[in-house]
Every structure is written in structure tokens, then in C-alpha cells.
Design a protein that fits this description.
By secondary structure, the chain is mainly α. The chain has a domain of 39 residues. It contains 2 helices and no strands. The longest helix has 40 residues. The radius of gyration is 37 Å and the shape is elongated. The chain starts with 6 loop residues before the first helix and ends in a 31-residue tail after the last helix. The relative contact order is 0.04.
Length: 95
């Protein structure tokens, strides 16, 4: 059942709850727990509908957007090891 609890364990737990809260407060406690569960369920449903609407809007926007191609970016060499390259001098020409 519940993580190794048998029927007698649950009866004892319910008896302790009855002693702690009293018979008069148990219906109000159950009612408030039911209302909380209903509100939680409604909020979860609203979130799922909101997510579905957002994903539908994203899908519609992506199909309407024109396809763009990514252009390669030009990178600059910023390393400190750069050395100036001088063209070789031809021995036959004079300056």
C-alpha cells in the first residue's frame, strides 16, 4: 500500500489525526483540502493551456519568418606572436 504500511497502521494514523484535530474540525479540514486540490488542478490546467498556446504561437511565427542564411564572420588575429613579414629582396634589382 503506502511504503510498507498495512491496514492497521493507517487505522492508527487516522485515530491519531482524529484525536489531534477533533471530530468537529475534520469536515472543515477535508473541505479546505478539497478546495486546495481543486485550485491546484485548475492552475495546472491553465498553465498547460498557456504553454500550448505559446508553443502554437512560436510554431506559427517560425513558419512565417523568412529563412536567413548565416554569413561567416570575419575574425581578427589578436595574438601577441605576430611578426611582420617583409617581402624577399631580389638580389638582381637595386633600390
Amino acid at each position: 500500500m503506502f511504503a510498507g504500511l498495512n491496514g492497521w497502521h493507517l487505522v492508527i494514523i487516522l485515530a491519531v489525526i482524529l484525536l489531534l484535530f477533533g471530530a468537529a474540525k475534520l469536515p472543515a479540514l477535508a473541505k479546505s483540502m478539497g478546495q486546495s486540490a481543486r485550485v491546484f488542478k485548475g492552475e495546472m490546467k491553465a498553465m498547460k493551456e498557456e504553454d500550448a498556446a505559446a508553443s502554437a504561437n512560436d510554431a506559427a511565427a517560425s513558419t512565417q519568418a523568412p529563412a536567413t542564411t548565416a554569413l561567416p564572420t570575419q575574425t581578427q588575429n589578436t595574438s601577441a606572436d605576430t611578426t611582420a613579414v617583409t617581402p624577399p629582396h631580389d638580389a638582381g634589382t637595386q633600390r
